[in-house]
Specification:
Strand order of the largest sheet: 3-7-6
Strand content: 5-15%
Number of helices: 9
Largest sheet: 3 strands, antiparallel
Order of helices and strands: HEEEEEHHHHHHHHEE
Radius of gyration: 21 Å
Shape: globular
Structural class: alpha+beta
Distance between the termini: 50 Å
Helix content: 25-40%
């Protein structure tokens, strides 16, 4: 066989970085946003973005990595569970058959954090019929350790719905900061009793799932521990927040480079 078929090319980049657009002038307070955007808050409208200068068609306004993301259940196994890339030579999970990874690094990153608490429960999650919001709330917890939440519980004590408005913002607004995630609008005061009860039941269900997978150091007892109450309270809040702050992302596949005929949306996921 020719040498080129028997030896690996050392110049081939096995893990190319994602090609993302650049923001020409970044906002000093909001690094993932353009300086053309600022934020305001009004009681009747909530928190909203406004243009601080003229914006032309094609201007890049934001490039942001989601603080939490999850593939829609029907696409599990078709794209990498961790980075969502299309896979050419997928790697399976060592335990379950529901997910695939594009590389060892993605598998190791997932197994060292969230997937070890999801792996044995995926069939249960699918059969429960729970929405993608529940998957996201569960992963919001599992991608951080219990000790992290205990060390940072002060972040989750006061919900400030006005947080992030430019005139009050002094520190740099970091998208990956759980405090900023926690402060996103949840409309708790406007919710009816039935809605709160529904989310409370799913919180208990997901908390039981965490208990079964060893997220907490002690076996579950007849009453909830202080740690379980902390995590349950935060997860309930995320279930409300995600309803209004999660967005679907689609991967668009074209059959031809010159025509969109026959093209399809091959992957969807939601992120907050």
């Amino acid at each position: 066989a020719p040498a080129k078929l028997t030896k690996n090319d050392p110049d081939v980049d096995l893990y190319p970085k994602a090609e993302l657009p650049d923001i020409p002038i970044k906002n000093e307070l909001y690094p993932v946003m353009s300086d053309a955007v600022t934020f305001k808050y009004e009681e009747a409208r909530g928190r909203f973005a406004v243009a601080s200068r003229d914006i032309t068609v094609g201007d890049v306004l934001t490039v942001e990595k989601a603080i939490v993301s999850h593939m829609l259940p029907e696409y599990m196994g078709k794209n990498c569970t961790h980075c969502f890339k299309t896979m050419k030579a997928p790697l399976p999970c060592d335990t379950c058959t529901k997910v695939m990874f594009c590389s060892l690094s993605c598998r190791e990153a997932a197994m060292s954090t969230y997937h070890k608490y999801e792996c044995k429960l995926i069939d249960l999650f699918l059969s429960s019929g729970m929405s993608i919001i529940c998957y996201l709330a569960y992963r919001s917890i599992t991608q951080k350790s219990l000790q992290w939440f205990k060390d940072n519980k002060n972040l989750f004590e006061n919900h400030d719905k006005t947080s992030g408005q430019t005139k009050e913002q002094k520190d740099v607004y970091v998208s990956g900061d759980y405090k900023n995630y926690f402060n996103l609008v949840n409309h708790h005061a406007e919710r009816i009793t039935g809605d709160i009860f529904h989310r409370s039941m799913f919180t208990v269900f997901l908390l039981r799932c965490l208990q079964s997978q060893g997220y907490f150091p002690n076996a579950p007892g007849d009453t909830a521990t202080e740690d379980e109450i902390l995590i349950g309270t935060i997860m309930m809040h995320f279930l409300e927040v995600l309803q209004f702050n999660a967005h679907e992302v689609a991967q668009f596949e074209m059959v031809s480079k010159t025509s969109q005929e026959g093209a399809k949306s091959a992957l969807s996921r939601t992120c907050a």
